[in-house]
What does this fold into?
Amino acid sequence: MRERLHGIFPPIPTPFDAATGEVDRPAIAANVKRWMTTRLSGILALGSNGEAALLDEDEGDVVVATVREAMPRDRLLLVGTGRESTRATIDASVRAAALGADAVLVRTPSFFKGQMTTDALLAHFRAVADASPVPVLLYNLPGVTGITLTMPVVAPLSEHPNIVGMKETSPELERLGQFAALSPSFRVLCGWAPVVQAALTMGASGAILAVANVLPDKCVELFDHVAAGRHAAALALQRKLTPIAQLVTTGYGIAGLKMAMELQGFSGGVVRAPLLAAPQKARAEIEAALHAVR
Amino acid sequence: MRERLHGIFPPIPTPFDAATGEVDRPAIAANVKRWMTTRLSGILALGSNGEAALLDEDEGDVVVATVREAMPRDRLLLVGTGRESTRATIDASVRAAALGADAVLVRTPSFFKGQMTTDALLAHFRAVADASPVPVLLYNLPGVTGITLTMPVVAPLSEHPNIVGMKETSPELERLGQFAALSPSFRVLCGWAPVVQAALTMGASGAILAVANVLPDKCVELFDHVAAGRHAAALALQRKLTPIAQLVTTGYGIAGLKMAMELQGFSGGVVRAPLLAAPQKARAEIEAALHAVR
Amino acid sequence: MRERLHGIFPPIPTPFDAATGEVDRPAIAANVKRWMTTRLSGILALGSNGEAALLDEDEGDVVVATVREAMPRDRLLLVGTGRESTRATIDASVRAAALGADAVLVRTPSFFKGQMTTDALLAHFRAVADASPVPVLLYNLPGVTGITLTMPVVAPLSEHPNIVGMKETSPELERLGQFAALSPSFRVLCGWAPVVQAALTMGASGAILAVANVLPDKCVELFDHVAAGRHAAALALQRKLTPIAQLVTTGYGIAGLKMAMELQGFSGGVVRAPLLAAPQKARAEIEAALHAVR
Amino acid sequence: MRERLHGIFPPIPTPFDAATGEVDRPAIAANVKRWMTTRLSGILALGSNGEAALLDEDEGDVVVATVREAMPRDRLLLVGTGRESTRATIDASVRAAALGADAVLVRTPSFFKGQMTTDALLAHFRAVADASPVPVLLYNLPGVTGITLTMPVVAPLSEHPNIVGMKETSPELERLGQFAALSPSFRVLCGWAPVVQAALTMGASGAILAVANVLPDKCVELFDHVAAGRHAAALALQRKLTPIAQLVTTGYGIAGLKMAMELQGFSGGVVRAPLLAAPQKARAEIEAALHAVR
It folds into this structure.
């Protein structure tokens, strides 16, 4: 498993049917099959970009099953299973494993921010790792959760036999550098596309990038450049990718991501409320940014 | 309804059975019955202090049903029904109403922080208010959600016929003062005990306070003092209540609240992971703070 | 001194000559004389609103001398003397005292945020208080400095014989409530106009308010209402004052404050760069808000 | 000038005499002469690490004159001249130029945070750049100032003929990547040692690092590795340098930096209040971290 945690993974969106608002299984399957024609290392289902926070438990299971069915076994299926309670996180991890997840990605609980001490976080992740039938990746996304995993939590957890690595989603690379230095077998995946070249240079073994849904080949090419030591080429490509990567994340969010996917021939679909559709002007900006990458 | 939104409401904790970890219905019922012997105006179930974030949907329904059964109809049952998606919030509100909620309290969605624009928040709360069978209270708790409701959102929503007020949980009173000035029929409840005297003076019509679970009579007494213009007496009581109010919220969280309830003869019970039990030293501090109020 | 720290104080702006950009002494004197016809308890010179951060040391001395000359001795002259270094703070305090300051207001040093531990803050304020020829007021303004004075710093300092009180500039009143409860002789002045009624109710002995430059009588009237227990009248006046108080602080800053002063017949003058003049639309908004108070 | 803005620069501390607390000129000169035996590209005087915030204007001039005298003309002398007011910043820049500064580094004004709009920042930096006799570098250090320079400010300023680049002091590299991509002639210097390898890979032309005061050769070696495409060697060295770099900045601040300098045979000296001496335990930690680099 640890060896396979390298390269590029898209955190796939969940297409909804425009008429019913329900999860669109055929659209998911079609997207996955097309992604699988590229050299992506696998897929993350039910991440932030999968609107997992807006799905109910049954819908999440449907997404995982649909993705797994459309993917060959030799590509990694990562599934987001973080919940606020430890027991719901374990339940979700057990269900994901049963549906074919190769590993689970567990974000920090964050509702009770003031109580998420080092001890609380250690106990939570250890309980999940002990109970999960498949390996666990920690998920640090302080911009969303308001909780930051730091060395006093991550270092001890990196020694747990069922915790194989983490996703670090932040423009800050000081932490990522420290996590990547912990051990060669503790794999760090970068979740912030505008700094992915730098993260890979600092020891990340791969990346989970919204923009990889839209431009999978370009993202893999960037990864290859760094792996082969072609840093000048990597920087040139990074600079081309950054604008579109920003538009589909901090710029227009998932609505922007789905719009960009549609423009690239994937099924994007609508977003679920309270998310709003992207504004009119987004389309031209996204088209221009996509065009600039070619 | 609007007239009844005054006075003191406890945001009740959810006791769990120490052996099984499951919701302890008899304990809830016993607590509610005892609270109902006081002059509390009603109860908030499934608020933050109810560990609602750690309950699954079925458990939440059990809590609401249990509370309603133990409460006379003439006391208000408020139920927290905020979820990340608009449709799950509506579903929860419909279910709560069916189980006897008199109004629902809807916190801001917050996972997709960057996308929670004024337009998105307006659309979300309007959709919920349109669909909810019972009146809606907005719930602003920026310290937990990272999202702050401000006048450009609250002022238009205060005119919706099914939005009757809000809970403002913050030590900042500038916003509360503005909200309370919007209209006499838009009721503002304060959620931050150490400033409750001030909030009531600025126009709040009542309060939802963790410490009211522990010392309901004292909280009602403070409310009465302000209502009767006895501000010096109110200040003296406020100063006595602040230390215990802090210990059961920002100090030791829900674990501290449950410990304080046990010390007062209520059923507190354990907390659910990832929350941890209060540390050893908490007990003496809480006892001392309780003692100081008498 | 402690007994005189009550009532309303304006943190006076520093008028600059529009042609030369230099401190306009006659304008200061004229303003002070007019303020002294009201029941203001005194004046704060060289506070944040005095653009102290934009003055050099010599200019600051000129301001203090000019104000003192224009004020009767029985009104309090408070002077802001906080600097980043302890020794510069002491120097400024000694100079202010020599020029007639009755007390000095010392903001938290903040450049080296990461190093401003409880120990560092205690040592700084104690050194200043030991050396200052006149009493010291602590100045907490976290929104500007990024440093927050809390009980572990303020409680011990409140026992220093030469520290007579503090100014708390924040919409948060939990801290203010705790500080005001420390001791009747430790005087707390509120610096946030939209919550001043509440702060006075919670035990503040007075307030230092930008809006008091513009509407001194109305601010004194609000203070009197609270002191006399007329809380309903206080609330009504608070609600009238809040909009103009916001426009001259968080709304349009010092440029807005100076504009409002001009509209009321005081000398406002230009602001110093990098501050910019208020935008066109500010004038109508400020006029309307002033009109609404009458 | 622009071509010379590459490589490593130490932001030199200001040694104070332990007995008098005054600036220790001979110690400065001795340090500078020793740094000049290395391949450092130049020196930054009066930066944050120079305790510039704690010096008065005369002391600052003494520091600049002393450093220039001890440095050959072919090494760059950068001088921090940012002040809160535009005119004081210009004055300081003119004086620094007269004393031999090759360029000035101008941090964002930050006291009036709420008023530091894009327009205000543009006007400030343009006025300074127009008036400065030597080229200007922008200085972004959001962790200290609470103000963040972003593309809408930096992009237009990068076209000013007298603005030659900037220092970006943050662990976040998304902004740095964008700034470095603006134009090859707009030079970006990284100010955050734990991510310096990554920053150089993303297009920074050099770095200003506290740890370069302590280990100048190692920092130059890291720079050379990246410049020569030896990224694996760079990463290995980065990982060795990060712990000591953290101890002399976010760990123990300037007191830690001065202690580390003493251990390496430089003159460190005491810090000026309100900064406190490093705690006892710092020495062993710093020694160990220094040892680990060899």
Notes: The interface with chain D takes residues 21, 48, 53-56, 84-88, 109, 111-117, 119-121, 123-124, 127, 143-144, 146, 250, 253-255, 272-276 of chain C (CB under 8 Å). The first helix of chain C runs from residue 25 to 35. Chain C is about 45% helix and 10% strand. The first strand of chain C starts at residue 7 and ends at 9.
